[in-house]
Specification:
Helix 4 links the parallel strand 4 and strand 5. Helix content is 47%, strand content 14%. By secondary structure, the chain is α/β, with parallel strands linked by helices. InterPro entries: Met8-like, NAD(P)-bd_dom_sf, SirC_C, Sirohaem_synthase_central, Sirohaem_synthase_N.
Amino acid sequence: MKKKAVDFCTAVFYKGEIRMGYPVMLNIANQPIVVIGGGKVAERKIHGLLEAKAKITVVAPSATEGIQQLAAAGKLIWRQKTFSPDDIKEAWIVIAATNNRDVNEAVAKAAHPYQLLNIADDPERSNFHVPAVIRRGRLTIAVSTGGASPTVAQQIRRQLAEWYDDDYGRYIDFLYECRQFILQNVNDEKKRKKLLKSIADESFRQRGNWEEEFRRLLQVY
């Protein structure tokens, strides 16, 4: 039994070259996205898409109460039907999140090469994965295991969420405002670099009183 387990692990480990993903941040605001499926998995993915202000269409014969409420509130379109290839012809991103492998396979076959495709139960057929995400204002932290273990990705996300709390999100928002001010009002390049470096230092964040500290730095530099 042990030998079989070792042989299996060896076969899996040496199965082939590891495919490395290329992390990007997509601006999907007002972009057409179709989610196939109306269950809990689909609902979870939909909430992330709504945060990014995507234009969402859900295709499913039935849907969770949460998805129905979102549809009733006009936050997405729900097509109460089974999937057909025409449902995704205008989509930029396609997400198959049903518990029916035949339906997910049909979605994969219908998708065009130029479309971004995520199959919830088949990372090998997908050309992108949705990472575990932490959002703190303008700060976004994404964790991915490349489809190996979403559970581990969620564990890491929870650890990072403790380190980077809501206060850190306010700090990132503050940095954005300061950066805009510096770029618009500080012409000296050396002074600009010193200011940007100083406010990004961890010691600056920990001191608190960021506005007062920033005004002081403007006078010092």
